[in-house]
Amino acid sequence: MTKPENLKKPERVEFILNRLQELYPEPPIPLDHKDPYTLLVAVLLSAQCTDERVNQVTPHLWQLADNPKDMAKVPVEDIQAVIRPCGLSPQKAKAISKLSQILIDEHNGEVPADMAELEKLPGVGHKTASVVMSQAFGVPAFPVDTHIHRLAQRWGLTSGKNVVQTEKDLKRLFPKDRWNALHLQIIYYGREYCSARRCDGTVCDICRTCYPARKHPKRVQKP
């Protein structure tokens, strides 16, 4: 009996693209928002917090303020009281207050559609800026969180040393016009089929199809 062979990297890339497109042809943005500012704040809140929890909290925050001008007038203590369920509330509340004032002072109250300018804002790192660029402005970006980092390793798409390298590897492998949808598709697939607990690199459809000869769990490096 012929032993199954693992797919070569180009074959894995093609299969992953096609399979994710079949499963999630139009992946929705998981964080509820109405404009670039509310998305920016929601993404900031999502650090070390689930999207579900953020979506429960933000309606209460928008009752206080849903734009930079009004938010800058809200006492930091009031912001913190509302966002406490999201965790890290002291730091996040200060960041929301400060970035709102900066948007007023330096960007006419608008969220800049510029990666470098976004990364200058308090509490906004590269991943948050990438999410805003892709989801608010449609600019090709590939935000990599811990879930995408894990799946990219399981699927043999990156050496997996850190999220910076993973982002570079994924951008090199996948067409630029697919980045924005693909990062969401990978997130949804990871949650539904290839989570940290439900799959170890040998269980889900993509892992088994890409690596049919894999006999042992795939060890992944945390970022």
Topology (elements, then pairings):
Blueprint: H1 9-23, H2 36-45, H3 51-64, H4 68-71, H5 76-83, H6 89-107, H7 115-119, H8 126-135, H9 146-154, H10 163-173, H11 179-192, H12 205-210
Helix pairs in contact: 1-11, 2-8, 3-5, 5-6, 9-10
Keywords:
223 residues; mainly alpha; elongated
By DSSP (H or I, 4+ residues per run), the number of helices equals: 12
Q: How much strand content do the residues show?
A: under 5%
The SS-based structural class is mainly alpha
Low-confidence stretches: none
| Relative helix content | 55-70%
Rg for CA atoms: 19 Å
Major sheet summary line: none
Form type: elongated
Number of strands: 0
Question: Helices and strands, in N-to-C order?
Answer: HHHHHHHHHHHH
Give the rounded overall mean pLDDT.
95
Q: Cα distance, first to last residue?
A: 40 Å
